[in-house]
Specification:
By secondary structure, the protein is of the alpha+beta class. It has helices at about 1-25, 30, 40-50, 60, 80-90, and strands at about 65-70, 75-80, 100-105, 110-120, 125-135, 135-145.
Length: about 150
Amino acid sequence: MKALVKTFAAAALIAISTFAMAAEGPGSKSAKANVNLSTADCALEHYVAVTTEGESAGVEQLFAEDFNQKIQASNAQSNGRNAVVKSLKKQKGEKLNCVVSTDILEESADYMVAKVTLKFEDFTKTDLVTLVREGNDWKVSSSVNAYK
């Protein structure tokens, strides 16, 4: 009888731990990861990693609450923070096949404007990124994309 009780207790512990891990969900640990956004350069570097290398850690920390993305093309689009974060999370682990270059266009103690150029085989994407200081962290507040 004692063996039966121990077996049921062990099965219950396994079931509870399985349910706890399932409730946590896949990738939730990386989504809650703390990334260094203490400088504009760190935030810009993380933005490039998120948008081009499929990095998903700290993606929600990276964008300001009022973030807005504009895509200048034949059919101009505008996306809010939630749509962009959701899209970037779906791209987790996907690396873009392009050459990336960054140029700081303007910088002060509280904001930075940078030009991120992604050169693909057949086209070039230019991303003008504005970063702002919010408390002790830097956040991406806007992004304007153009394609050539």
